[in-house]
Design brief:
The protein has a two-stranded antiparallel sheet. The longest helix is centred in the C-terminal third of the chain and has 27 residues. By secondary structure, it is mainly alpha-helical. Helix 5 packs antiparallel against helix 6 and helix 9 crosses helix 10. It has one domain. The chain is built from ten helices and two strands.
């Protein structure tokens, strides 16, 4: 049930992700739908470089726990090539408590926050579609994922250095889940495209992690071993290039 008190976008996002952790996909859908609506009503996320860099200093991000909801529509028990990354992105507002008016302003969000919330919407709708076996909702989930990608790409072109991309390798989760989503929709060409990009990014991430370990620098790999193995399994499966005939 939605709380009666007014909630800001970040609070709604975190409630959605917490619901996802508890496998309450219906509540997760309710919370994230309101958060996305607030973002859309805003009209435009902060886009200038100075605004984004300044506000990013006051927010932190972290992956949630895994959900144990079903992750594929097909009944196959073979885990190879069927990995879906089910961690949502939690957001913490670190601004001082005396700045309460600013903290309650749902319009004051930057590119990273917007991209994280839209990604969460894609994940939640994808899992809801799988649970309810509704293919039409998969397309909606895909549009959220792609919107998150576009938001970060355009901000990067304007010079915004994303915490999500550079600290969390956020785009890797997007590529993995888009590949799985397209596979479920029998869009094998798109699935192959996303998994090919996923493979290249995973190779870069693993090499970067090894280099960081050798030099005793801060570890750059924020995905656990099971996540990496699951994603890698998606990239080694042969994908048909055409849809099956009726």
């Amino acid at each position: 049930m939605i709380p009666q008190r007014r909630l800001d976008v970040i609070s709604l996002n975190n409630l959605a992700v917490r619901s996802l952790e508890q496998n309450d996909i219906s509540c997760a859908c309710e919370f994230i739908a309101i958060a996305v609506k607030l973002i859309r009503n805003q009209g435009k996320i902060q886009s200038s470089t100075s605004q984004n860099q300044l506000s990013s200093n006051y927010f932190s991000f972290r992956w949630s726990k895994n959900s144990s909801l079903p992750t594929q529509i097909s009944s196959s028990q073979d885990p190879i090539g069927h990995f879906l990354f089910t961690r949502g992105m939690l957001i913490s507002d670190l601004r001082p408590q005396n700045n309460q008016n600013q903290k309650c302003n749902s319009n004051n969000i930057n590119t990273d926050i917007g991209a994280a919330i839209i990604y969460n919407a894609g994940l939640i709708f994808q899992l809801f579609a799988i649970k309810k076996r509704k293919f039409t909702l998969l397309a909606k989930a895909g549009s959220f994922y792609r919107s998150s990608q576009t938001l970060l790409r355009k901000a990067n072109e304007r010079g915004f250095k994303s915490k999500l991309c550079f600290n969390f390798f956020f785009h890797i989760a997007l590529l993995n889940n888009l590949g799985q989503l397209c596979y479920e929709l029998v869009d094998y060409q798109s699935s192959a495209y996303y998994f090919d990009r996923l493979q290249k990014n995973l190779k870069h991430l693993i090499e970067k992690s090894k280099a960081a370990g050798t030099c005793k620098r801060k570890k750059t790999n924020i995905y656990c071993r099971a996540d990496l193995l699951g994603m890698l399994s998606n990239t080694i499966v042969d994908i048909p290039m055409t849809a099956p005939t009726a």
